Amino acid sequence: MQPLQIIRLELVGFGQFRGRSITFGEGLNLIEGENEAGKSTVQAFLTGMFYGFFQPEAKRRSYTFHQEKYKPWDGGSYRGVLVCRRGERSYRIERSFDRDSESVRVYDAQTGEDCTQEFPYHPVTRQVQVGETLLGMTKTAFLNTASIAQLSCGSVSREESFSAQLNDRLLSMTGTGDAGLSLQAVLCQLEQKSEAIGTPKKSRTPYGQACQRQKELESEWTLACQKEAEELQLRRQRTELEQQLRQLQKEKTALEATIREGCRRQLEEKYLKAQNIKQRIERLEREQERLQVYSKVDLAAVDQAQKRLGARMQIARTAEKYRRANEQLTQRCRELENLYATLEVHSADEQLLQQYDLMCERSRQLAQQKEQIVQQKQQLAALTEQCRSIGWVDAEKLEADVQTMRRLSKPQTSSFQNAAWLALGVGAVLLVAAVATAVLVPSMRTAGALTAVPALALLMLGGFLLFRPAQHPSRRAKVLLEQLMDDYPQLNTQSDPLAAMEEMLRKAQLDNDRLEQYSRQQRTLEQELRDRIQTAQQLYQQLGQYLAALTGNPQADLCSKSLRESVGQAKRILAELQRLRLQQTQMQQEEQNCAQQIEQINASIAQALVTSDPQKESIAADELEYRRQGKRRYDEVCIELNLQKQLFDETLGGYSYHELEQTVRSHAPSDGQEVPELSAAREQLHELEQQLETLSKQAANLDGLFQGREEAQRPSGQVLAELESVKELCEGYRFELEALGLAKEKLLHLSGQLHRDFAPQLNERVSAAIEQITEGRYTRVVIDQVLGVRVEDRQSGQLVEAANLSSGTSDLLYLVMRIELMRLLCSDCPIPLILDDSFTQIDDRRAAQLLRYLQQTTDGQILLFSCHRREGKMLEQAGIHFDKIVL
Amino acid sequence: MRFLHTGDLHLGRVFSEARYGRAFAQQRRRELLDTFSRIIDYANEHQVDLILCCGDFLNSDQLCVEELRNINAMIERLKRAVVFAISGNHDPQIENSAYQKISWSRRLYLAPPGISRMTLEPLGASITCHSWDKKEMTEPFSVPKADAHSNLYQILMLHADALSEESRYLPVDKDALSQAGFDYVALGHIHSPMELAPNVRYAGSPEPLDFGEEGSHGFWLVDTDETNQQVQFVPFARRNYRTLTVQTAAQDAELAIAERIAAKLPCQDDIYTVGLYGTHPSCAGWDLSRIREELLGKGYLCRLDDQTTPDYDLKQLGRENQGNLIGDFIASFQGETMDAVHRRALEYGLEALISQKGRES
User: Fold this and answer.
1) Searching chain A, which residue's CA lies closest to the CA of residue B343?
2) Where are the alpha helices (DSSP H) in A609-678?
3) Which of A175, A186, A250, B122 is the most exposed place for a label (fewest CB within 10 A)?
4) Which of B200, B235, B270 finishes a domain?
């Protein structure tokens, strides 16, 4: 098969690279770059493009740390393209490393055709297996052989899977000469069969499920057996309980029979008793019917009526007493009236009698009046005498004469003068006014003229009066004296007449006053006398009338002793009569009251009575008593009847009489009757029933337990049958697994044998390479089945572990072993060898030898990454052609 | 008197899911109950006076109480007959047996453990019987004698093995049975009906209970009067077990084999044991489960007995691959006892090697 050649890498976005493209030559490619130039990144890119960053051999898709490590630094798309060629066919691998859009597609680089489907699909990574197909090895093998990273030469994987894979490939080639027959695949197929059957621990496999089911069934069976044992125990308990229950039931039945018999006897007694009570009840009912009339009697009313009846008798007795007293009073009145009739004043009434004292007083007044009249008549006579003794002069005339005398005796400044002067004055004023008016006011001239007239008249009158002729007083006085001498003879004219006259006037005035006084007294006395006489006459008449009314004799002596006594007696009789009549009236009132009370009582009694006349006292009382007695008896009968009925009901004890009778006659047993003598039996029965109830509950509980168990648990036999079936199934699985195991064992045994066949071949190739590179320092290398490397020390002839040699030599040994392993694995289809600074620990000489060895032995492409210029110089010095790529 | 002789109903028997599949195992279990129900109906329809059940009426430890109640309800349906049952090795009258779990119908009379005799005056019959009270009874059974003075129809009921003297299940001498003087000896325990003597019969089970129990299954119906006795076997099984063989070739497909088997099966109700003979492909044996499911889909329940052999010649294959892995693998089995595991391992290994080789090539 043609070697695989990597043509170009396009790091679209990977680590520090963005849009970087690297093209490789066909043979040796030296990729130089300083530290951090990205050599390891490119190598990781190569691995990633072929295999992705999945954990190899993982059962579930998981990633190596590279997936995170080589994310683009700029955060852009995380993908790349690898173009490779095998023979005539070129492949363009496009892979996206982003977890969200993770994918790998393979195209034909020449036609652009998508040939992804040509690659096998890996169910764990869920991607096609590009690296496995194109490189012909797993990722583990690739990383341990073709791709040798920095400082990892000695870190060849000791994983069982890698060594197994290696062995598988080697033995297939060496043993069969046919690399296609993969022992691993055969084993894998058998393993798959085994896995399809599963193991007891894998619960999702059929065998696991069967085992699980077997365990469950065993547990269930154990549990079922346990529960059945418990159930058996319970059943025994139940049986015992049932026996106890039966025993108790028997005892209960016997007791119930005893009780029934007792009850039957009791029932008969009860029937007899009920019979008697019934007869009694019937008798009482008849009596009750007879006394039914009293049923509605109100005993309180009867009591009240009886009390009232008593009260009525008392009242009647009181009324009778009043009546008798009234009669006595009437008799007494009559006697007094008779006595009164015998009196002088029998016709006088009380008023007259009452007036007697007044009349007596008036009689005394009349007598006094008479005396006073006499006295006054004497006084009047005396006065008349006195008046006659005094002469009467006309004082007024005398006075007027005196006056005249005086006037005549005195010069006269008459009043005429005064009037004259007044008239003159007024006339002058009026005249002045008239002239002034006429002069000053021409329009008032007429008025002025008119005013002047009276003024002149007045002036004239005044002049007249002032100047009229005067008379001489002595003459006139004389005349007058003469007349006076005629009138008053006693007048002494010898001396001064005026004084005499004045003396006479004074005396006349005194006498006149006395006469007038006497006259007034006389008139008064006469008037009093007339009044007295009139009064006396009136009194006399009154007294006459009074006496006439009092005694029938107006002339009788009012103040006589007999009359006085008669009047006094009459007064006493009348007062007594009046008192008696008052008493009589009271008695009558009381009697009436009693009558009214009796009426009321009668009315009230009438309500309590039915037949009797309430006024018929004895009958009513008897009836009331009858009613009372009747009612009492009725009540007693009712109570007795009720009691008897209660007793009857109690005696019947829930039966009707008819039922009881029927029961007794039919001799049927009865329950529910309390018989004292059976109480012990009943208590015993009660206890039995309680025990029965308790046991029944226990039995019910057991039944419940049974039921619960029955529902919850399958019978053990059923479980056992299923268990045996499952065991049979498990046995089948075990058989199959045993057969598969035996087959695998045989194959693995063959594998060991084959390894022994191919190991010398590998040892030989590695030994030759090492001998060349170390220039004969080491000539023999031994690699064991798990890729442990030992080298023979030429001096001692001992095999020394590679790890015990210098790190450079150890690295070299492992590097060569890996290269040879790769050649063995990929002898038919060489793949690129990728070395990333793998010569770091190897000295220049050996490195040059190694490069020469590589150039001589490698048919395919070599990608040699280096951070030094040493490898380039060595290659140039050795004249080895190489393509140099600087990162 | 008309009586029905049956036994070994094994009501409640659990069928192996490994052999029958879960669904059919359960169905078959129900069918046993249905058959008993049909027997009840038959007894009612045919005026049967007595049903003799000669043991193993129940699979005592495989029945839950609810099922027992259902069975009891079936017995209650009897209008005329009563069930006279003895217990057998599957329903011995031990503590906690199914007979003690519920109150049974008055129409079921279960004979007490040991030998007992019961007279059925109305039927003019006397039954002597033996009931089991343990699961195994290895001592030979001493057959009781019939009452020589009795005018009754005398029946002996036993659940015993009259076919093997070494049996652990109450071995009994069949000659002794026939000579004991009983008018009818009703036997149970053997699932196939058979007549050991004119008056000695095994009822067999009304339903065949496992592969191998081929032949007709049902019960005996006996009509008897003072002078005559008429005995007839009434086939009653819902299904019969049958056996047949089918030839296969390596190039056959499983579906074709299923078609071939189905074409040979006469009745869907029966249960078949199909023997596959011939060859199967060298890289893989027949997928028997696929064939079985295909047949089940067609309504046939079959047990497949794969007797086919790989289509390669082992010796020739060894010769052809001498020195390589296949040859070495075949050679590695030489000299070893080729038991079933070794044979199967060789098949597995060769199957893998050949298939892998074929795939890579």
Assistant:
1) A739
2) 617-652, 657-666
3) B122
4) B235
Q: Are residues B61 and B191 in the same domain?
A: yes
SS3 B248: strand
Each residue's pLDDT tens digit, A157-183: 545 555 555 665 555 554 444 444 567
**Residue A102 distance to chain B (closest CA, Å):** 30
Pair (B125, B17) in one structural domain: yes
CA atoms A754, A757, A763, A764: torsion sign = negative
Question: Two tokens at A718?
Answer: 């059923």
**Residue numbers in A near B359 (CB within 8 A):** 185
According to DSSP, residue B137 is labeled B
Domain boundary among B177, B209, B235: B235
Nearest CA in chain A to B58: A717
Of A560-574, A789-803, B212-226, B329-343, give the lowest mean pLDDT range: A789-803
Partner-chain contact A235 B17, CB within 8 Å: no
Q: In tens digits, what is the pLDDT along chain B, a chain of 361 residues?
A: 999 999 999 999 998 887 788 888 888 999 999 999 999 999 999 999 999 999 999 998 888 888 999 999 999 999 999 999 999 999 999 988 889 888 899 999 999 999 999 999 999 999 999 999 999 999 999 999 999 888 899 999 999 999 998 899 999 998 999 999 999 999 999 999 999 999 999 999 999 998 888 889 999 999 998 888 999 999 999 888 889 999 998 888 888 999 999 998 888 888 888 999 998 876 667 888 889 888 888 888 888 888 888 878 888 888 887 767 788 888 888 888 888 888 888 888 888 888 776 655 4
Check whether residue B203 and residue B59 sit in a common domain. yes
Host domain of residue B177: 2-235
Same domain, B116 and B156: yes
Residue B58 DSSP code: B
Q: What is the pLDDT of residue B146?
A: 92
Q: Do A176 and B324 touch (CB under 8 A)?
A: yes
> Which residues of chain A have a CB within 8 Å of the CB of B13?
721
A332 token code pair: 């007494």
Helices A299-341 and A561-608: crossing angle, nearest 10°?
A: 160
CATH of residue B152: 3.60.21.10
Could you tell me if A371 and A363 are in contact, meaning their C-beta atoms sit under 8 angstroms apart?
no
* Res. A481 pLDDT band, cuts 50 70 90: confident
**CB distance B325–A715 less than 8 Å?**
no
Total domain count, chain B = 2
Residues of B with CB under 8 A from a CB of A: 12-19, 25, 59-66, 95-96, 100-101, 324-325, 328-329, 332-333, 340-349, 352-353, 355-357, 359-361
In chain A, which residues have their Cβ closer than 8 Å to the Cβ of B96? 228, 231-232, 235
CA distances from A234 to A220, A709, B37, B59, B91 (A): 20, 11, 31, 22, 20
Pairing of strands A781-783, A862-866: unpaired
Q: Are residues B40 and B97 in the same domain?
A: yes
Same domain membership, residue B64 and residue B19: yes
A583: CB partners within 8 A, 6+ apart? A325, A329
Both B180 and B122 in one domain: the answer is yes
Same structural domain, B103 and B160: yes
What is the pTM for the complete model shown? 0.50
Place of tokens 């009546």: A323
**Distance (Å) from the alpha carbon of B165 to chain A's nearest alpha carbon:** 28
Q: In terms of DSSP bridges, do strands B200-202 and B184-188 run parallel, antiparallel, or are they unpaired?
A: parallel
Nearest-CB residue to B325 (from A716, A738, A750): A750
The beta-carbon neighbor of B96 closest among A186, A232, A710 is A232
In chain B, the residue whose alpha carbon lies closest to the alpha carbon of A708 is B65
Residues of B in contact with A181 (CB under 8 A): 324-325, 353, 356-357, 360
- B337/chain A closest Cα distance in angstroms: 13
List beta partners, residue B5: B52, B220
